[in-house]
Amino acid sequence: MISEILIKKYSMTQCEVSKLLGITQPAINQYLSRRRGYKVVKVLKSSGRISRLAEEVADMIVRERPNPKEIAKMLCVSCAMIRSDDEVLKKLLATINLGNGNVVLTDCLLHNTVTMRTYREVGD
User: Fold this and answer.
1) What does DSSP assign to residue 103?
2) Cα-atom radius of gyration of the chain, to the nearest Å?
3) Spans of all domains in the chain
4) pLDDT of amino acid 74
5) What is the mean pLDDT of residues 32-42?
6) Which of 111, 78, 105 is closest to 93 using CA atoms?
């Protein structure tokens, strides 16, 4: 989502965005052409709160030109917000085939420290 915003709103090239975000230009191209991550992005875009957050992060990247470590911190905050939204999290987990949405990621994906725990509905 952030790469798409940077390209469409700020007229950045795929190469510029790839350098800023620390991912390859072909990965950016695949995201934009919906060959990679489309289902996940669709779920994230369905949340107004997360869409606004992506806009804010993109705006901050353009305005402040943070270094890669600072961008990683911004993405960690974004990840935490996504994980705090039970509705979006359940849709994401179902979308990426982690069962029936009954698993919760408890650590940041950026640092490869993902822990899963069972999520229990109220009343179960």
Assistant:
1) E
2) 15
3) 2-118
4) 83
5) 86
6) 105
Burial status of residue 61 (CB atoms within 10 A of its CB: 0-12, 13-18, 19 or more): buried
Per-residue model confidence (pLDDT) at position 23: 87
User: Do 51 and 82 form a contact (C-beta atoms < 8 A)?
Assistant: no
For residue 89, the model assigns a pLDDT of 80
Q: What is the pLDDT of residue 123?
A: 38
Q: Are 6 and 12 in contact (CB under 8 A)?
A: yes
Q: Between residues 93 and 46, which one has the greater pLDDT? A: 46
Q: What is the dihedral of CA 56, 21, 38, 40, to 10 degrees?
A: -60
CB 54 within 8 A of CB 78: yes
Contact, 82 vs 88, CB < 8 A? yes
Q: What is the DSSP string of 32-88?
A: HTTSSSHHHHHHHHT-HHHHHHHHHHHHHHHHH---HHHHHHHHHHHHHHHHH-HHH
* 116-118/103-105 β-pairing: antiparallel
Q: What is the mean pLDDT of residues 46-55?
A: 88
